[in-house]
Amino acid sequence: MLNQATRKMAVQLLGTSASDCECTMLLAAQNRPMAALEQVAFLLQLMNISGQEKKAHRLALVKAGRAALKKLGEL
Q1: Cβ neighbours of residue 12 closer than 8 Å, sequence gap 6 or more
Q2: What is the Cα Rg of the chain in Å?
Q3: Residues 56, 15: contact at Cβ < 8 Å?
Q4: Are 30 and 66 within 8 A, CB to CB?
Q5: DSSP state letter for 15
Q6: Is 61 left (phi over 0), alpha (psi -120 to 50) or beta?
Q7: Are 10 and 27 in contact (CB under 8 A)?
Q8: Residue 33 neighbours by CB under 8 Å, 6+ apart
Q9: In 10 A of CB 37, how many CB atoms?
Q10: 21 in Cβ contact with 59 (< 8 Å)
């Protein structure tokens, strides 16, 4: 079951354009790579469970996940 903060974050990111989602998550990947990875995994899982297609959002999330992994590799 989702808590209120998690639900708000999901609505905020998935309710925007794919470009906004990408910018937000790439910024998070640069500043907080581990938290960004957790968000990416959670959002992708949520989209799978709820059957949301949103291909552009999925690509944006995967791109942010790669950026977060790259940042973690540099540390």
Answers
A1: none
A2: 12
A3: no
A4: no
A5: T
A6: alpha
A7: no
A8: 67, 68, 69, 71, 72, 75
A9: 20
A10: no
pLDDT (average), residues 13-22: 92
> What is the per-residue pLDDT for 71?
95
User: pTM to 2 decimals?
Assistant: 0.88
The yes-or-no verdict on residue 1 having pLDDT over 90 is no
32-38 long-range contacts (CB < 8 A, ≥24 apart) are 33/67, 33/68, 33/69, 33/71, 33/72, 33/75, 34/68, 34/72, 36/64, 36/65, 36/67, 36/68, 37/65, 37/68, 37/69, 37/72
Q: Which residues contact 31 (CB under 8 A, 6 or more apart)?
A: none
**Location of structure tokens 């709820």:** 50
Residue type, 49: I
Q: At 16, which amino acid appears?
A: T
